[in-house]
Amino acid sequence: MRGKKTDLPEGVRARIADIREADILVGIPSFNSAKTIAHVVQAVEAGLSKYFPDRRSLLVNSDGGSSDGTAEAVRQAGVDFAAVLLDHRNRSGGFHKLVTPYDGIPGKGSAFRTIFEIARALEVKACAVVDSDLRSITPEWIELLIKPVLDEGYDYVAPYYMRHKYDGTITNTIVYPLTRALYGKRIRQPIGGDFGFSGRLASFYLGKDVWETDVARFGIDIWMTTTAVANGFGICQAFLGAKIHDAKDPGADLSAMLHQVVGTVFGLMEDYAEVWRTVRGSEPVPTLGFAYSVGLEAINVNLAKMLGKFQTGVRELAPLYRSFLPEDLLSFLGDLAGRPRRSFVYPDREWVRTLFHFALACRRRVMSREHIIRSLTPLYLGKVASFVIETRDSTAAEVEGRLEELCLSFEREKGHLIERWDGTDGDPVPPRRSP
To bridge 81 with a disulfide, which of 25, 86, 121, 365 should be the other Cys (CB 3.0-4.6 Å)? Predict the structure, then answer.
């Protein structure tokens, strides 16, 4: 550890002292993941053995207090090297496991903080984090997330994978097009959940004062991506194939995740306004790995439920919307709420302007940030419902083309946001302390 102070439990610090140092760390945050995590652990160990046999490596399970035997599943999981045609005797680097609970606000971000702290204490060169519910992870994922850092000098490796057209609707309708338009980088899965990063970036993350905010819950993925982009770290993305995990119907209750992710995005807009206000258009980032078509599990969508929540929200939240949405958008939403399914269309331009005015409302503190962002849920469901209606019979390639159109609409309308950001058409904007 070379004298570096950590906030880790005594038992973890003792284990780190025994390990002393490592080249690679792979973290798996978890909570009640006993049914799926053994497969993830096996894929990680096989990947490290196959692609980095001469590197000292550590797998860290950062757990949020699971009661279903997750920790024991991690400890017992191992690779039958003969069955996967690997000879573990050729490993000269060494492989270790460390299972530890994390402290702090319950959530993925707190789990990541522990992983970052262990990485810093061991002075690792490259790190990766992968979700504990993955059913499609392979040993090749570890190579693709780690090798760009070790061999190519990148600091951040975002995932790029195929997903069902109705999986990741928060990403598709909000996070990807908005962050692309803001920061000018086409990172397709900015909240994908599985990332590679350098040890120096892990230390940079630890220096940020965000660990008592929503970043410690669901906001960590987009915070990591945006922080890396806005601070000029070297970024690429790696094609990982299919992402098959415990996906949810977009009509189910995703309001907590939506609130925390969008809240983090809006907060970062304030922190890095001087960065994104000078960006025009967007550019691709280097994409590593061999792209190929994959089969995906279907996701059932409850369209009637989404439309019902949209209509109810527009009706019941009209007084709140009136405090920060312009009259033309209010009129549009009222009209859309009365339309039958066959003519229900939430156009891209109206959706983009809706999001921009929500961001401006948070910027101007027209009311509590929580109230503003939670009131976005029914409108988000309306946009997703419109997208589902439009793309029912579309192929995956056609859907990507449709999402490209949405992204370009965000880029075209960005001037609308920039013109209003400093309060030139309303009250002065109160200052915000950056983390």
Answer: 86
**CB within 8 A of 10, min separation 6: which ones?**
none
Render pLDDT for 297-315 as a digit per residue (tens, 0 to 9): 678 789 999 999 999 999 9
**Could you tell me the CA-to-CA distances from 374 to 4, 248, 313, 320 in Å, in that order?**
41, 19, 11, 11
CA distance 317 to 374: 11
Share of the chain above pLDDT 90, in %: 74
Find all residues with CB under 8 Å of 327, minimum gap 6, and list them: none
Counted residue by residue, the chain has a size of 435
Q: CA–CA separation, 135 vs 42, rounded Å?
A: 12
Is residue 188 within 8 Å of 160, Cβ to Cβ?
A: yes
The C-alpha atoms of residue 209 and residue 144 are separated, in whole angstroms, by 30
Helix 396-420 and helix 377-391: axis angle, to 10°?
140
Question: H-helix or E-strand containing 128?
Answer: strand 126-129
Mean confidence (pLDDT) of the chain? 90
Q: What is the pTM of this model?
A: 0.90
Q: Cα(248)–Cα(258) distance, rounded to whole angstroms?
A: 13
Spell out the domain ranges in the chain: 10-288, 303-420
CB atoms within 10 A of CB 67: 8
> What is the bridge-based pairing of β-strands 195-198 and 156-162?
antiparallel
Q: Is 196 exposed, middle or buried (0-12, 13-18, 19+ CB in 10 A)?
A: buried
Contact residues for 84 (Cβ-Cβ < 8 A; gap 6+)? 46, 139
For residue 214, give the amino acid letter: D
Give me the phi and psi of 319, to 5 degrees please.
Answer: -60, -35
Query: How is the beta sheet containing 156-162 ordered, strand by strand?
Result: 95-101, 57-63, 24-30, 126-129, 195-198, 156-162, 235-242, 287-288
The fourth-level CATH superfamily of domain 10-288 is Spore Coat Polysaccharide Biosynthesis Protein SpsA; Chain A (3.90.550.10)
Q: Is the pLDDT of residue 2 over 70?
A: no
- Structure confidence by residue, pLDDT tens digits, 203-212: 999 999 999 8
